[in-house]
Amino acid sequence: MPIYEFECRECAGVSSHLFRSDTRMEDVRCKACGSARVEKILSRIAVHKDLSSQLSGLDPKYDKMVDATVAKQPGSDPDRLLRKMKPFK
How far apart are CA 7 and CA 39, in angstroms? Predict the structure, then answer.
């Protein structure tokens, strides 16, 4: 069952309506003002990507930007714990 968006010609409000097999265009009313003068509009779509597609779409400089940001944080030196250790006797 598709969901369509309509713009009201009276109040310019946009409302979404679920269309079942028995729904007619004449039955659609503006949810804001109740007017029947509505026009179907093109609405946005959502596309869900898997993680690998999301990662491939990142800026190629992303890893360098993350590394630079982490390097600025206090305690980011990986050898800091080794320098605090004392040798076994």
Answer: 5
Q: In the 8-state DSSP scheme, what is residue 38?
A: E
Label the pairing between strands 38-41 and 14-18: unpaired
pLDDT digits (tens, 9 = 90+) for 38-69: 999 987 777 788 888 888 888 888 888 888 88
Tell me which H or E stretch contains 39: strand 38-41
Among 11, 6, 43, 41, which residue's Cα sits nearest to residue 26? 6
SS3 31: coil
Per the confidence metrics, is the pTM higher than 0.85? no
Can you tell me the distance from the alpha carbon of 15 to that of 35, in angstroms, rounded to the nearest whole number?
Answer: 12
Token pair for residue 87? 């040798």
Distance between CA 87 and CA 79 in Å, rounded? Answer: 15
**Token output for 55:** 């990662």
